[in-house]
Amino acid sequence: MSERTPIDPDLVPDSTVVAFVAIGSNLGDRASHVAHALAALDRSPGIRVVRRSTVHETDPVGPPGQGPYLNAVAELATSLSARQLLATLLDIERARGRDRAAEVRFGPRTLDLDLLAWGPATPGGRSIDVPGLQVPHPRMHERRFVLDPLAEIAPEVAARAVGGIHFD
Questions:
Q1: Which terminus of the chain is more exposed, N or C, with fewer CB under 10 A?
Q2: Percentages helix, strand, coil for the chain, rounded to the nearest 5?
Q3: How remote is the C-alpha of 113 from its chain's centroid?
Q4: Has 98 been annotated as catalytic?
Q5: What's the CA gap between 45 and 130, in Å, rounded?
Q6: What is the pLDDT of residue 164?
């Protein structure tokens, strides 16, 4: 296992690193929002979508009265720092109408992009923990709507996230 020293969120990798991003939507044309996110990621400088899971429909977590989510996970190859990648994710969300400042916590959203892992910041590995950015994602192990799509494309990462449990 790699050393546990924290990773600088502004560290630009010497070559591409692997990152995983969770994608979710439960407002408007959910399928269009998910497809847009994948296309926008692949068009973004310094990012290439390597693999993606199938899309899963899941019950919402949070306040009652919201519709089901469509969820997926994408594996990326990126030459961006973790902070640069997060900024790109937030820009893609805003382009689809998300206003994080005005929304209810765990409420409905047009598009939700969460950075699950970046380079050596993976479950069981090193971490990034600064205001506004925690990698690996601190709650991914609690979220079946993240773990199931992640297990499709990276079962070893999903297993490490939940302490070694393997997904079938």
A1: C
A2: 30, 25, 45
A3: 5
A4: yes
A5: 24
A6: 59
Q: For residues 40 and 66, what is the distance between their CA atoms, to the nearest angstrom?
A: 26
How far apart (Å, rounded) are the C-alpha atoms in residues 123 and 138? 9
Active-site residue flag, 10: no
User: What pLDDT, in 10s, does the model give residues 6-40?
Assistant: 899 999 999 999 999 999 999 999 999 999 999 99
Please, where are the H alpha helices in 15-154? 30-43, 82-95, 144-153
Of these residues, 30, 83, 96, 98, which one is catalytic? 98
Tell me, yes or no, if 114 is annotated catalytic.
yes
- pLDDT tens string 69-125: 999 999 999 999 999 999 999 999 999 988 777 777 777 889 999 999 999 999 988
Integer angstrom CA distances of residue 14 from 69, 114, 146: 36, 24, 29
Domains delineated in the chain: 17-161 (3.30.70.560)
Q: What is the pTM of this model?
A: 0.91
List phi, psi (to 5°) of 25. Answer: -155, 140
Here the tokens at position 87 are 């900024």
Helix (H) or strand (E) holding 160: helix 155-161
Radius of gyration of the chain (CA): 15
Q: How far apart are CA 86 and CA 21, in angstroms?
A: 10
Question: Mean pLDDT score of the chain, rounded to an integer?
Answer: 90
